[in-house]
Amino acid sequence: MKREIFLEKIAEVLDHDGTLLFSQDLDTIKEWDSLGILSVMGFLHELKLPIDTDKMLKLKKISELVSLASKILDE
Amino acid sequence: MTITSKPLVERNMCGANFKFSKPEIKAIVTTVGRRAISFMESAESMGLSEKEALRLAKTLSLNTRHVVSGNQTTTDLCFESAMNILATLNLDAKSVDALIMVTQSPDYASPSSANNLQHRLGLSERCMAFDMRLGCSGFVYGLSVAYSLVESGLERVLLCVGDVASRLVKADDHSIAPIMGDAGSAILIDSGKKDSFFQLYSDGSGERALYIPNSGVRYNEFDKDLPCYIKMDGAQVFNFTLQRVPSMLSEVLTFSNFTKDDIDYFILHQPNKYILNSIQKICEIPDIKFPKDTQSIYGNQNSASIPGTISGFLSHVFERRQIRSIFAGFGIGLSWGACMIQTDKIYCPPTVLQKE
């Protein structure tokens, strides 16, 4: 999967209007709350990616979220 | 299929596996709290803005939940369900050999609520009665014990499951109060001739992912000043569910030697529609075999959610024909379990509203 597509999917599961940027801070996304985090975790499970809940809760940037999916993203 | 000469319980990497050949479910009745609370109408009292409430309602499919009024308890709901079975099927109360009550909201910390129900239902003093303290996995666990007793020689067991979960949460805690409902189911299990397969699991390392602080005799410094209400780490519970439940469904199919196509219904504990949608996507189970609306209408019924789903949405099917089902419960403990069972035209009326 391309990184851009992955970010589009993340915006979709968060129900976020607009484009997510690789360098963006997660706390600038109003939907990145407990409900939003659960939605993203559900999406990562669908992609069969391993999830460390503590790590998920400590994410600060979109780039860190992308790195959790590096296994399935194109180089 | 006949039971083999292998030990009844096998222990291996898949967990505790059980096979039975005698027990059959003959009846399921679920009674719910009469009072229906609309999520949107109660959102403001929980400190939610309209926008926040709409997002929660949309994502989790929150609609209504049924709760008890006044001082009604789990034993009251289970009593109505059990009396419905005994009266409608014209059964002699003295014919019940065992009564198992699965609840986290007993009438008292001690004695068991099962003793209260044994007396109120007019069951014999020769009827064994005991409680099991389990939550969302409780129906599958309780059914496995009821089936074990019948396989061992008892003729008739009454399993009562449920909670008045609305009493276990702080009314204005919007992280958990909007999802909880009150229900009590009674399930009649007789000796017969049906094969069934169970798998049960436990992981106490997740004890505090979902627990009630200061509710027993253990004192912890980190629980100091915490109210005696359910405390949930939603992310941990969600992650546990998606890690454990899909693989368990696959394993119980393998263990029972069936495929997804052979199963009429996958009836899972109903925490909320969002979690169930996530499990369904991972497992690739068609909508028609995977009911998931119980929480949206009745609330999370804890250990009564699997029988509650049958009563609420599938009673006409279970009453009319033979059904092969996978049941799966998962949650507080952490504890989870699944079984493959077969039923044949059981007594199973639609969900009953608690009497006024």
Summarize the topology.
The complex is a heterodimer of chains A (75) and B (356).
Chain A lengths: L2 H12 L19 H13 L6 H6 L3 H7 L7
Chain B lengths: L8 E4 L2 E6 L2 E10 L2 E4 H4 L7 H11 L3 E4 L6 H15 L9 E5 L10 H8 L7 E5 L5 H14 L4 E9 L17 E10 L4 E7 L7 E2 L19 E2 L1 H23 L8 E4 L4 H11 L10 H5 L6 H9 L1 H6 L1 E10 L3 E10 L7 E2 L3
Parallel strand pairs in B: 3-16, 6-7, 6-8, 13-14
Antiparallel strand pairs in B: 1-2, 2-10, 3-9, 4-5, 8-9, 10-15, 11-12, 14-15
What would you say about this model in short?
The complex is a heterodimer of chains A (75) and B (356). Chain A is mainly α. Chain A has helices spanning 3-14, 34-46, 53-58, 62-68.
Strand line-up across the major sheet of chain B = 1-2-10-15-14-13
Which secondary-structure class do the elements of chain A indicate? Answer: mainly alpha
CATH superfamily of the largest domain in chain B: Thiolase/Chalcone synthase
Oligomer: heterodimer
Broad CATH class of chain A: Mainly Alpha
- Total number of beta strands of chain B: 16
- What is the fold-level CATH name, i.e. the topology of chain A? Non-ribosomal Peptide Synthetase Peptidyl Carrier Protein, Chain A
Strand portion of chain A: under 5%
Largest interface: A-B, 14 and 16 residues
Describe this structure in words.
The complex is a heterodimer of chains A (75) and B (356). Chain A is an all-alpha fold and 75 residues long. Chain A has one domain (3-72): Non-ribosomal Peptide Synthetase Peptidyl Carrier Protein, Chain A (Orthogonal Bundle). Chain A is 51% helix and 0% strand. Chain A is built from four helices and no strands. The mean pLDDT of chain A is 88. Chain B has 356 residues and is an alpha/beta fold. Chain B folds into two domains: 12-194, Peroxisomal Thiolase, Chain A, domain 1 (3-Layer(aba) Sandwich), CATH 3.40.47.10; 197-349, 3-Layer(aba) Sandwich (Peroxisomal Thiolase, Chain A, domain 1). The radius of gyration of chain B is 19 Å and the shape is globular. The termini of chain B are far apart. Residues 1-13 of chain B have low confidence and may be disordered. The A-B interface holds A 15, 34-35, 37-39, 41-42, 45-46, 51, 53, 56-57 and B 55-56, 59-60, 175, 234-236, 238-239, 242-243, 274, 278, 281-282.
